[in-house]
From TrEMBL:
Name of the protein this chain belongs to: Uncharacterized protein
Membership in a protein family: Belongs to the short-chain dehydrogenases/reductases (SDR) family.
Entry keywords, A to Z: NADP, Oxidoreductase, Rhamnose metabolism
GO molecular function terms attached to this record: oxidoreductase activity, acting on the CH-OH group of donors, NAD or NADP as acceptor; quinone binding
Organism of derivation: Staphylotrichum longicolle
Amino acid sequence: MPATNLLAGKTAIITGGTTGIGRAIALAFLAQGCDVAVNHLDLPSDAPHLASLLAEAAALLTTATPTTRIGRLAHLPGDVRDPATGPALVAFALSTFNSSRLDICVSNAGICTFAPFLDLSPDLFSNTVRTNLDGSFYTVQAAARQMALHQSPPGGSIIAISSISALVGGGLQTHYTPTKAGVLSLMQSAAVAMGPYGVRCNALLPGTVRTQLNEEDLRAEEKRGS
């Protein structure tokens, strides 16, 4: 990926940044000159993804030229369900990169376990809501506080990864689709709340993307075709 330095000198945080969409965004930001701090759960299953991300980031650094900058990558374990994780990630990014500004926040961490509605357990519903919606709220709020109250001039960009599922129902996603609709609504309201501070707030609603979350579901040839 060529580096044109669209984000040179900027600082970003990304939750769930070692796999899937978050990982792709992290690598794209690095290639554009942005310093990126990613959050991950630090589970044993995360280790290979983190190792390969660090290797890709290191490889990107070798493509730097006298006129282009490749961003630096750092990572911090944390569970977005914990209200303390968002503020910790913000502080970590600013400290690690010796930056006085948080320019970009991408709230991406999420889970999606397919389950039939009639058999869906309270624990699965609660965990999905706490991760996808509560986690996004805490992350976005932490970034917004930094961008509005603790840097001069105020401002920045907050992006939350919602889903086309916010608009389209799914029979095995009755616990998941409401959280993504909530993320979309959260960003609509955050845009109004943060506009006076010069902070842009947007939700992205991707369609089906083959990631570790839906790999099992997409093994069905009929589903892939549709």
